[in-house]
Specification:
alpha/beta; single chain; 412 residues; Rossmann fold; 18 helices
């Protein structure tokens, strides 16, 4: 226990963490506090303790996945939340930066890990999205929206919040009949199909996931919009070379996180070239509060290889090089945390099916991922940005009134 005590004593001040060592001895860290969890964990062996000392984030994840770390009271969501709540990103304390060496190491890991040439991009997508549509059906909403929902009023269901998200985004696109829309990273087709239902537009959705492509095509046919909504397995870079200037509007939801820091300039250049002279793009992405950072080892290894969460500063800096005008920015601070808690609850409710489908270790890995992500949005440095871009300063109305008017119409 002596190797963990100094670390946990520094971190756990509010809330209570009870740690039971392999020999049965226990130590308690922190004090009970309103709103803070109380959790008991047990180490099955000393290997689990050593893993955490050597690499707290990845070590804790793998110790939990392998059963070296077991939760006796509470659950993994509460454990991760307890740690994060004691060290919130926006805590207001004296700021201390990492050393130059630490910053440089993080920068190198992130840039080298997210170069994402086209072949690697396909492999990265396959790692996360081609593990089976059946898994995603178990914890997503009925429309299979695998991105931050929009909680526009209290007590919404996940389904209602995802519908509100699509209406919110559609309103910012300033849709009009006859427009040609491109959905970059279309997922299972829900956004593309919704846009075609809201307005008489033509939509092309592109993805690198074969599983998503097949289901998206089926869903468009079932919705009766296959004559105006098509899907293709193609990289955005190839599409930009093939069809420059074709699209009046571009929407991209939850895809920019997979582009990779090294490709930001390429992404925005491709987007600008794909749009008409008065085109508009709405980019919905997870983003960092504060300055650029690095992708943690657990996420790089198990969840999103090649992924990188951008800071707003580097996103806008990259877009400026392609003469895209930033016409609107909205920061969704807690919406993804609410979404993730719904996904986590549904994952727990389907534990038996997921274990049978993917195995015990995968289930523990997935719950750790959802718990860690939730804590990052509740107490860490993560949020969501919706950024509207235009190629021409004349492309959109002079005031934002049109957004609220269209959103009320679409959501009604």
């Amino acid at each position: 226990m002596s190797i963990l005590s100094p670390f946990l004593s520094r971190v756990i001040r509010q809330g209570r963490l009870t740690v039971v060592a392999p020999d049965g001895t226990q130590e308690i860290f922190g004090e009970p506090a309103t709103g803070f969890p109380e959790v008991t964990i047990r180490f099955a062996n000393r290997r689990g303790m050593r893993r955490i000392i050597l690499d707290p984030r990845l070590g804790a994840a793998e110790a939990f996945m392998d059963g070296d770390l077991q939760i006796v009271e509470g659950d993994i969501m509460q454990l991760v939340a307890l740690i994060r709540m004691n060290t919130p990103w926006d805590r207001g304390a004296k700021l201390k930066d990492k050393t130059w060496l630490g910053r440089r190491a993080d920068w190198l890991k992130t840039r080298l890990g997210s170069i994402n040439r086209q072949r690697q991009s396909r492999a990265n997508v396959k790692h996360h999205y081609d593990i089976g549509n059946d898994l995603y059906r178990l914890f997503l909403d009925a429309d299979m929206q695998y991105s931050c929902a929009y909680w526009s009023r209290p007590n919404m269901t996940l389904e209602e919040a995802q519908e509100a998200k699509k209406a919110h985004i559609a309103a910012k696109l300033a849709l009009a009949p006859g427009q040609r829309i491109l959905d970059i990273g279309c997922g299972w087709g829900g956004m593309a199909i919704t846009l075609a239902k809201l307005e008489k537009v033509e939509v092309l959705g592109i993805t690198l996931s074969e599983e998503q492509l097949a289901l998206a095509r089926q869903r468009a046919a079932a919705a009766g919009v296959a004559d105006r909504v098509t899907f293709e397995l193609i990289d955005y870079r190839d599409l930009a070379a093939r069809e420059p200037g074709r699209f009046d509007r571009i929407v991209s939801v939850g895809m920019f996180e997979h582009v990779g820091a090294a490709n930001f300039d390429t992404f925005f250049r491709a987007a600008a070239n794909l749009m008409t002279a008065d085109g508009v793009m709405l980019l919905h992405t997870i983003g960092r509060f504060g300055k650029p950072g690095a992708t943690d080892a657990f996420t790089r290894k198990y969840i999103f290889p090649g992924g990188y969460i951008p800071a707003l500063s580097e996103t806008l800096a990259a877009s400026e090089k392609s003469r895209l005008i930033v016409t609107d920015v909205e920061t969704l601070r807690l919406h993804y945390a609410l979404t993730l808690r719904q996904w986590y609850a549904r994952t727990l409710a389907h534990e038996a099916e997921i274990v049978q489908m993917m195995g015990e270790r995968f289930f523990r890995m997935w719950t750790f991922y959802l718990a860690g992500a939730t804590a990052a949005f509740e107490s860490g440095g993560m949020g969501n940005y919706q950024i509207q871009f235009a190629r021409s300063r004349h492309a959109l109305p002079l005031t934002r009134d049109y957004i609220g008017e269209a959103e009320a119409r679409y959501a009604g």
